[in-house]
Amino acid sequence: MNLSDHRHIARIAVPVSLEMTFQLLLNFGVQLVVGVLGTLALAAVGLVNSLVVVGMVSLSTIGAAAAILAARAHGARSPQAVARVATTAGVLAFLFTLTLCLPAAFFAQPLLLGLGATAEIAATGARYFQLTVLALPFMVHASVTSGVFRSLGQARIPMQVSIFAVLFNGLLAYALVVGLGPLPVLGLGGAALASLIAQGLRAALLFWLLHLRPGRVPLSWSRSLTTWRQAAGQLLTLAFPLAMTQLSWSAGAFLYALLFARLSVSALAASQIVLSLEGVFIVASYGLMSASTTLIGHAVGQGDHRRAQDWSVILQRVGMATGLGFGVLFMASAYLLPHLYPNISPATLQVAFWGIVINAAFQVVKVRNMILGGGVLPSGGDARGVVIGDLIGPFVVGLPLAYLLGFTLELGVWGVFWGRIADEVAKASFFTWRVRRLRWQALTAPRATVTQQAA
């Protein structure tokens, strides 16, 4: 790997990782504010967020599909195809997500109860869930515009917009939760309302910057229903298997949260502390997934299968280094828990401490899964392998083992933690095998063919 390769990766990965770092720092900051309200509020927010993530990561695969197709079209030097992908994906993402979220918001508390939440947690988290789920259409639409920007090599733009939105969200959330100045005390509902306002603003800014400013990607409208159907079909063909894998991953995360909740409110709160802190450190490697999508997509669009394969190997090596380095920092963060969560019980913090140690030791495995499952395999034309791997990990290995260890063998919270680790190890093994079977020569095509397919 030469200096030029480093620069290509950094140009995409660093802004994306910084963007996600600010987003996760916001989530962490909001969690600290919510922690002032007590363990029940923290547990309710953790459970609701686990559910909302199911919708977010599943529906945002429309943005991931748009990024892959836009990267191929950009590599093939077809701006018309980029415009078609961006317009179709934006419309599809917003309208489809809004259709799903409206009834979910209306039936918030019954939905939480039906999914296994206790009556106490469902009542506490209902209003938070209502407002948070209404922010999803804006978040999913922003994932489309952000993905297109990155595919064009302009990763700094969504980073700058997201940092602004994160800072605005954090300040507004604090003001509304505690009732700063003349503002009313809204509690959990205030945190969710701040997110709704900030995400709407972020989506509007990204839309304007991509489509309406000078030098923009023009909106590609067509009066032909057939044209829209064909463009949407190309997106959904790629997005559907990605959505299935994200749905299985996030549903698995929600089921793990339910297992923790069955143990105790304290166990659930501890697990959410671990996940929040883990996100702050693993996000340093998140940009490598976007770099995989963009750089491999460009090589595919140019018909250069050797370069596509080289990028796959290079990005895996970089991920190994970042996973190890930031895993050490994650482990060290366990000693800060009493200072970060002064209102949480010592017993809960003790569980969180060892949960961090366990997860930090295997962070390099999670980073590898992120790069292979989120970047290399779908960009290499093997979205099916990602679906299979994300089904095997939680549902064949992780969740059954977590239940066996945690409840049948009565290891409690430690059994559930180790079940999640086994989940990641199983996925890493399967993804590695699938990457070795990729046929890069069959995937790449002459530039004219790729341009025609993307258009």
From TrEMBL:
Subcellular location: Cell membrane
Membrane spanning residue stretches: 21-45, 51-70, 82-108, 128-149, 161-180, 186-210, 231-259, 279-300, 321-341, 347-365, 386-409
A molecular function (GO) term: antiporter activity
One cellular component term from this protein's GO annotations in UniProt: plasma membrane
UniProt signal peptide: none
BP terms from Gene Ontology: monoatomic ion transport
Pfam family, one: MatE
Domain of life: Bacteria
Keywords, ordered alphabetically: Antiport, Cell membrane, Ion transport, Membrane, Transmembrane, Transmembrane helix, Transport
Main location: membrane
PANTHER family, per the entry: FMN_FAD EXPORTER YEEO-RELATED (PTHR43298:SF2), MULTIDRUG RESISTANCE PROTEIN NORM-RELATED (PTHR43298)
Name of this chain's protein: Multidrug-efflux transporter
Source species of the chain: Deinococcus peraridilitoris (strain DSM 19664 / LMG 22246 / CIP 109416 / KR-200)
